[in-house]
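User: I'm preparing a small set of examples for a lab meeting where we compare how different chains pack in three dimensions. I only have the primary sequence for this one, and I'd like the structure in token form so I can line it up with the others. Please keep the answer compact; I'll paste it straight into my notes.
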Amino acid sequence: MKNKHKEERPRLKGNKLAAYNHINKEESRILVIGDLHEPFCLEGYLKHCKDVYAQHNCNQVMFIGDVIDNHYSSFHDPDPDGMGGGDELDLAIKKLGRWYKAFPDADVCIGNHDRIITRKAFASGVPKRWIKGMAEVLETPNWRYDTRFVYDNVQYIHGESGRATKKAKDDMMSTVQGHRHTEMFTEYAVGANYKVFGCAVGCGIDNTSYAMAYGKHFKKPAIGCAVVFGGDYALNVPMEL
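Assistant: Understood. Below is the structure token output for the 241-residue chain.
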């Protein structure tokens, strides 16, 4: 008697077969999520990222930095009518919990807003041993936090040193970054013996929130995320607004 549970392969040919084989081949397909600045993330951005993860059969997740805003302790002038430090942190942890539930295994690039508290502690002479790690503070124990990650010879950084393409050229290494809220692109630099790309992910911020007032005279933010396929190329996916 034939096994009724025998795996059935789709009867495809031509381009459809090639597409099926491509989407099922073993390669990293990394969803790269832009700056969140919780608790000031745009409503709907989480759903957008979850949809992109599913649509492109992703198997890895990278947060490109500034997962929290720390507005109350910002180097910009904080809004005196805004939340106090404890309330903002509590709300950031609560909202970040939705991201953790959706993507419990992820890498997180540490951004300049993420580092505000540790920078101020350092400037005040507080030894590192007194400072908790971000995973513990933000209640995301399985997330890995670092300033730089490398997969498939592509580096992932928050991106405070300039545009993604310039960084890719300087390091001769494909580079994916966030930080610059108004930029979303993938651009290639090609030479006789190399090909690298710079990818600016975009972001997920709510530009109408009081915490984003410092950027109200800039261009509107580019809301979106990106997917990097096997280290070979990147795809920007803007969010429908």
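A couple of notes for your slides: The domain at 28-158+202-238 is CATH 3.60.21 (Purple Acid Phosphatase; chain A, domain 2). The chain has six helices and eleven strands.

User: Perfect, thanks.
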